Amino acid sequence: MIRTVKNRFFICLVIVAMLPAVNGCRAHFDTARSTVVMAGADISYSEGNYEAAADSYKKAAGMNNPKAHYLLGRMYAKGEGIPRSDEQALYWMTQAADREYPPADVDIGLRYLFGEGVPANQERALFHFQRAADNEYALAMYYMGIMNARGWGAPANKTEALRWFRNARACGYPVEKNLLTGEGISDFMAAETASSTPPLLDVSNSADAAAIQARLAELGFYRMKIDGKWGAGSKKVLRAFQKSRGLDADGEWTMQSQIKLFPGAGR
Question: Does residue 47 fall inside a structural domain?
Fold first, then answer.
């Protein structure tokens, strides 16, 4: 009887000792499974089968995959394969952002900055850009430069604007050369103060083209490399965006397209 009790006690100790390893294996298994599900979702999306893609992203989101949370949020924002819902879009993107997925923070930041699906709130926009920038996300660093240069969400700060623009450039974002010097920042800030009507971005300018591509990417339209080269692929994406906003879908960059793409700020 005593030996039986001792044997049972020993078995319990072994099971308790193995639990961390078992849980670790389960975590690796769940990660691998979500990766497979995500791959299938991406294929379905690329083929235009949005309902299947949404279902797969939901499954991966249930496995705590932050990218799945984000992409599901974007599908809700655009109404692809599921009913369009700004509330659900924000919910799922927030799930991704809270799991330190920087693209989600940038998307949420832009929504607060431009009042898309949420009340415009520059302070909230700044918070999300800051969190993504702290995770060394180059696009967020660029927006931090813009926010500090324009005084959005906090008082204008030339030193901080220059720091963020340089950090963004160092991390590979095509920041305009004039924004990488103190003099250039001063001119930029003065121009923004002097005029409330922004000029039309020039798609033949690589920095402007990259900014347009980045914004289209954040809205879920652009899935190619952001390289500042405006070609047939970029025009095709722009046509899809124009159609979704009730504009003439001709792929031509116009002030109407700019206002729709960057509402309230022009850029």
Answer: yes
